[in-house]
Amino acid sequence: MVRRNLSVAAALAVALLLPAAAAEPPHYTFSPRPPGQIVQSALFYPAGEGMQSQWRAVASRVHLGGSAYQWYLSVYAINFDTATYKLQYRSPGNGPLLSRVTRAQGGLWLPLQSLHIVGAGELVRAGVQNLVVQSHESSADCGGASVAVFTYDWTAQHFRPVAVVTNGCALAASLVHGSTGDAIRLIGPYYSATAPLCCPTKERAVAYLRYAHGKWTESPSYFALKVP
Fold first, then answer.
1. How are beta strands 29-31 and 84-91 bridged, if at all?
2. From its phi and psi, is residue 169 left (phi > 0), alpha (psi between -120 and 50) or beta?
3. Contact by Cβ (8 Å): 116, 59
4. 181 phi and psi angles, rounded to 5 deg
5. What is the number of other CB atoms lying within 10 angstroms of the CB of residue 159?
6. Domain assignment of residue 95, given as a range
7. Beta-carbon contacts of residue 74 (< 8 Å; ≥ 6 apart)
8. Strand order in the sheet with 68-79
9. Model confidence at 49, in pLDDT bands (50, 70, 90)?
10. Does the pTM exceed 0.90?
11. For residue 127, is it within any domain?
12. How confident is the model at residue 22 (pLDDT cuts 50, 70, 90)?
């Protein structure tokens, strides 16, 4: 019984030392609001689960006509004193990721877009989450897709992408949680250097994006990886 009580006391002591996620205010606001209709909203913690680190990523869209939408990714940090999420990043706007949709000759709105917040994973450091987002844009053909990993640079005080994977036609991402850390599973068609978009070398290729030993690596190297 004494040993059990000691174990419970030790577990409680450890739990008290760990940072806990702060409760989100029940009636929060965005400043400024995301453009258009909010389609997806997700909490994440770029400096660990604590009050000062609670952020929210929002995918929203503005209807332009027909099946055309201008998509936006807006990223906010909470101010608990005012229950307000303050804008830190927006694309298109002050950050790369999405293009501006414009009206082309003939009245078509191009490019056609889609955006999805994949989620947040502890990709670089335990307890610190990176935001993962996938997007797709197309005009005359099947277009191109990208998966972007974001972090907050506390030295430069700037939210930015740290790794971007691109591919022709399609690319889907999902988070994989493992004992050695998180990774991103990438699925899409693989094209050799001479393959046209109509005819992928491999219709369904699977690769994993990881951060290890101070750098981003993709294995196998099916898709184009860029580290800004």
1. parallel
2. left
3. yes
4. 125, 175
5. 22
6. 20-226
7. 30, 34, 35, 57, 58, 60, 87, 89, 90
8. 29-31, 84-91, 68-79, 55-65, 37-44
9. low
10. no
11. yes
12. low
DSSP string, 154-176: TTTTEEEEEEEEEEES--EEEEE
Structurally, the chain folds into a number of domains equal to 1
Q: What are phi and psi for residue 65, nearest 5 degrees?
A: 145, 140
* Greatest CA separation for the chain: 81
- Asked, for residue 4, whether it belongs to a domain, the answer is no
- Is residue 15 domain-resident? no
Question: Considering the domain boundaries, does residue 9 fall inside one?
Answer: no
Query: Which stretches within the chain are classed as H helix?
Result: 2-17
- Token code pair at residue 158: 């700037």
Q: For residue 16, count other CB atoms closer than 10 A to its CB.
A: 8
**For residue 112, what are its two tokens?**
């056609």
Would you say how long the chain is, in residues? Answer: 228
